[in-house]
Design brief:
Number of helices: 7
Largest sheet: 4 strands, antiparallel
CATH topology of the largest domain: Alpha-Beta Plaits
CATH class of the largest domain: Alpha Beta
Strand content: 25-35%
Radius of gyration: 16 Å
Number of strands: 8
Distance between the termini: 12 Å
Oligomer: single chain
Structural class: alpha+beta
């Protein structure tokens, strides 16, 4: 069995409250094993024999739509990919040291050149971005409340769903669940 991490969009934000034990049961009902949640923001770790992450995403999204009554974009990464994402250093140490936050946006696939150009047009004195694979690293130099950037802005700019996680959360998950 392979271990995967599901990053779910719209869980316990924007008026959508879902208890983690409910999510755990929904994943178990799909035949996944060793299902665990990590903080109450839509991070699930599970094992399955299926290797096709795209089909896993579709299966989970369909189940969650039917069970919760709204769309929940799902982004699957292997435990090995999670470790690589958490360890990746997209910015200079001096930039990271003085920044207020480093977040990672998960996407379904890599950006094309036009989408990457649209993203980079959002750079400001507060916000900087780095694209690596299917992830976007967002460096916020001041408090995020001072930034005009958000996941909604990102989705509108790219024309596709995404979900954000703080690097500290990803590092803790990688330390606990990466094999």
């Amino acid at each position: 069995m392979s271990r995967f991490v599901a990053f779910l969009r719209a869980i316990n934000v924007g008026g959508h409250t879902v208890k983690m034990d409910v999510l755990r049961r929904l994943f178990e009902a799909q035949g996944f094993s060793s299902v665990k949640t990590f903080i109450a923001s839509g991070n699930l770790i599970f094992e399955t024999n299926t290797k096709d992450t795209r089909s896993l995403e579709k299966k989970i999204e369909s189940t969650l739509r039917a069970s919760l009554g709204y769309e929940v974009a799902t982004f699957i990464r292997t435990s090995t990919e999670l470790a690589a994402i958490a360890d990746y250093r997209p910015f200079k140490p001096s930039e990271l040291g003085s920044a207020a936050a480093l977040n990672v946006a998960f996407l379904a696939g890599p950006l094309d050149a036009a989408s990457k150009q649209n993203l980079m047009a959002l750079r400001t004195a507060i916000d900087d971005f780095h694209v690596h694979g299917r992830e976007i690293y967002w460096l916020c130099r001041k408090r995020q409340s001072e930034s005009t950037f958000s996941n909604n802005v990102l989705e509108k700019t790219l024309g596709q769903p995404s979900t954000l996680r703080g690097i500290a959360t990803l590092q803790k998950m990688a330390a606990k669940y990466s094999s």
